[in-house]
Amino acid sequence: EKGGHKHFMAKEIAEQPTVLGEAIEHYITADGNAITLPDAGIDFTKFDRITMVACGTAYLACLTAKYWFEQVARLPVEVDVASEFRYREPPIPARTLALFVSQSGETADTLAALRYCQGKADMIVSVVNVPESSIARESDLALPILAGTEIGVASTKAFTCQLAVMATLALKAATDKGALDDQTLATHLATLRTLPGLLSLAINTGPEVKAIARKLAEAQDVLFLGRGAMFPLALEGALKLKEISYIHAEGYASGELKHGPIALIDKSMPVVVMAPRDALFDKTVSNMQEVMARGGKVLLISDSAGIREAGQGAWETLAMPSVDALFAPILYAVPAQLLAYHTAIAKGTDVDQPRNLAKSVTVE
Ligand code: M6R
């Protein structure tokens, strides 16, 4: 049942190239040049804003997607955790699309937030892994992420498939809004299609990550830093690590370092810097150097060009294949997952059934 893997989490990490490929292809037309959504789809010209609501890792997928919708489609996005959204009872302006993301489709707070939006938002769309779930059934349109059953409590393949579906949605929004010409759309779609292969390469770094994780397992606290769309990935890296290894971890936007967390830097706290060589790379590197100048131990996760340029003096480096900056978060989810997985193994914790956690939180 674990397909030769020791844990469901390992199996689910390994399945990502396949399921991600299926999710991407599902939303692209056969000629590879356009996006196709089920039923009547979504006409983004009808909306001026999107409000996204979810919990946990699904919330972090929304935070990542916000960068895509705003950057590519110039469509403003608000993102909330469901437990805050539902009790804050925010006003929902006209021309709002409400989007709910949930692997299980049964998370109590997310479902309550969806019900709050019924009759207020112009359209309710969900991005779910379980098509028969309550959240799917109560939406105007449910978009499957096609990740297949996810058993490990720590969400892995659901996260990357959620990202893939929302990336195609952002491209659809950009096309509807006239913000993207056919040629650029085709380029983006071709890039998306390279991701499953890149994820395989990232998964192959397992043995290297294992060696790093043996050292990481000795830490009491770990800080994750990222900038731009890598910021939500820093949050996801921290969430994964604390869930299954029980090491206290925090994710921060790199630029926030000097506004507080830099006070924590010392020789005993590893700082994981997730920094593909993109337009913001130099800024992140300068934050990283601030950490190193204070004796902090940096694990730099970048592509080989980034590591060549900025890896000197780092405690550890981990090379990812180079990837188009826009969709880098989908690739960098893999080292975040592998780091948590191997650290938990090194600590001997229960990877698939971490203490105090349930796979689906159906009570608030
Ligand atoms: O089923 P959902 O996607 O609605 O679940 C949301 C969270 O409970 C879930 O992502 C949780 O944070 C995971 N354990 C993260 O690995």
TrEMBL record:
GO terms for molecular function: carbohydrate derivative binding; glutamine-fructose-6-phosphate transaminase (isomerizing) activity. Residues 40-179, 212-354 form the SIS domain. Keywords: Aminotransferase, Cytoplasm, Glutamine amidotransferase, Repeat, Transferase. One of its GO terms (cellular component) is cytosol. It is an enzyme of class 2 (transferase). It catalyses: D-fructose 6-phosphate + L-glutamine = D-glucosamine 6-phosphate + L-glutamate. It comes from the Bacteria. Coiled coil: none annotated. Its EC number is 2.6.1.16. GO terms for biological process: amino sugar biosynthetic process; carbohydrate metabolic process; fructose 6-phosphate metabolic process; protein N-linked glycosylation; UDP-N-acetylglucosamine metabolic process. The active site is at residue 359. It is found in: Cytoplasm. Its main location: cytoplasm. Catalyzes the first step in hexosamine metabolism, converting fructose-6P into glucosamine-6P using glutamine as a nitrogen source. Homodimer. This is Glutamine--fructose-6-phosphate aminotransferase [isomerizing]. The lineage of its organism: Bacteria, Pseudomonadati, Pseudomonadota, Alphaproteobacteria, Rhodobacterales.
